[in-house]
Specification:
Distance between the termini: 40 Å
Largest sheet: 7 strands, mixed
Structural class: alpha/beta
Radius of gyration: 23 Å
Order of helices and strands: EEEHEHHEHEHEEHEHEHEEHEHHEHHE
Strand order of the largest sheet: 11-10-9-12-13-15-14
Low-confidence stretches: none
Number of strands: 15
Bound molecules: S-adenosylmethionine
């Protein structure tokens, strides 16, 4: 694969034109309008500039940048509240704009707009991802782990959004302390950009489901941190083959498997099914669960446009299953509450793939968002059920 083309940003500072490499995890284009801001810049001014499309290169104290970002965020909240009030008045006249799934799409737009504004606060880091800003933490290891080394010759500075740096620092924290998986009495160590199993009620479903008669070969499709493959290996599947499209996920899964000294899991970079693999007695998959377009590479674990992955997984399952093999599909029904898909459609895809439902195990998520009554999607989120669908050839 060709390395992505390097991109650069330019700005005026001290009467000279400066240039640095541009990095953006969300694939945002290099900003064309950049102004210098520091501790003297007010939050109102920063918010006004950022919401009008100007990027702000921070030259003040590192911790003050974090506070500025929070202050901008509060201003976005206030603007959104005012616009929600205006919409509510209009909605009285046109109730369809309040209807789900419009609400879901509106919420995504609001979130994307917030992310765009917040990502306009920028940092310049040197070739080791270090910064000489006052009170700047050591960011080098976290940024190298998240974004890779900047350049081999080590002579190229970069500009990136403060939020991306915060993401890298946060991920380094998770990677160090891990996510405790209560049901299994072990911890999983997520890497930057890999789906972190912080909501893992579904683990109990995988522990409760009776294994098919001969769990000799099991696949974990879309393995992420490797969590489901690890559960299968711990439940005595003889050979587990785990795939993912994301190289970051595969590195992360490999790290977790090594930490647990499991020797019966093989990893493969693949679109869905492994190649050159024996037929599976068990295929497990926890696919991205929302049928919408990801707005950044980090969202590929959550959004599956037109449910393409899910439908292709089901369509080809039979040809990868051994005799009496089973598919364990982990699926939230949030999409149904959001009216983005019906239960009949899902059952139709099972039937079209020549699969029938052997049994279903359910669990109700207990995460904070499902309890937050101020969330416009509360009604849908609070009714969400996550299921393990056990499917077998009809
Ligand atoms: C919801 S995450 C689940 C991760 C993990 N199995 C778990 O339960 O924690 C979905 C995973 O599927 C992967 N994925 C998405 N599309 C894929 C495809 N076509 N082939 C293989 N993996 C895919 C994503 O990279 C992500 O790691």
């Amino acid at each position: 694969m060709l390395a992505p083309q390097k991109q650069y940003v330019q700005w005026h500072e001290n009467d000279i034109v400066q240039e640095a490499r541009w990095l953006s995890e969300s694939n945002h284009a290099p900003p064309t309008r950049i102004v210098i801001v520091d501790d003297k810049t007010t939050a109102d001014e920063a918010y006004r500039l950022a919401s009008q499309g100007t990027s702000l290169l921070w030259r003040g104290d590192f911790h003050n940048a974090r506070q500025l970002l929070q202050a901008i965020n509060r201003r976005i909240d206030r603007t959104n509240e005012r616009s929600a009030l205006r919409k509510a008045k209009k909605t009285a006249k046109s109730p369809e704009s309040k209807a789900i799934p419009n609400l879901f799409h509106q919420q995504r737009q609001v979130t994307a707009q917030r992310a765009r504004i917040l990502s306009r606060l920028l940092l310049e880091l040197d070739a080791d991802y270090d910064s000489n800003l006052r009170r700047a933490p050591d960011m080098s290891a976290a940024c190298i782990a998240a974004f890779g080394p900047l350049n081999e010759k080590g002579d190229e500075a970069c500009v990136l959004s403060f939020r991306d740096v915060q993401g890298a620092l946060g991920a380094a924290g998770w990677r160090e302390k891990g996510v405790k998986i209560d049901h299994l009495d072990l911890s999983i160590y997520p890497h930057y950009g890999v789906f972190a199993p912080t909501r893992h009620e579904y683990v109990q479903l995988l522990l409760d489901a009776p294994l098919p008669v001969m769990p000799d070969v099991a696949y974990d499709i879309g393995t992420g941190t490797g969590l489901l493959a690890i559960i299968l290996a711990k439940r005595d599947a003889k050979q587990v083959i785990a795939t993912d499209l994301s190289p970051r996920a595969l590195t992360c899964a490999s790290d977790n498997i090594e930490r647990l000294e499991l020797t019966n899991i093989q990893l493969q970079e693949a679109n869905l099914y492994p190649t050159d693999a024996p037929p599976a007695n068990l295929i497990v998959c926890n696919p991205p669960w929302l049928p919408a377009k990801p707005s950044s590479p980090l969202e590929y674990a959550v959004y599956d446009p037109n449910s393409t992955m899910l439908r292709e997984l089901l369509r080809d399952a039979k040809q990868h299953l051994a005799e009496q093999g089973e598919v364990w599909l982990i699926l939230s029904d949030l999409v149904e509450h959001l009216k983005l898909r019906t239960r009949e459609e899902l059952l139709g895809w099972f039937a079209d793939s020549g699969l029938t439902v052997k049994y279903r195990l359910d669990t109700q998520p207990k995460h904070n968002r499902s309890q937050d009554e101020s969330d416009p999607l509360f009604a849908a989120r609070s009714s969400e059920v996550t299921s393990l669908w056990c499917l077998q050839p009809a």
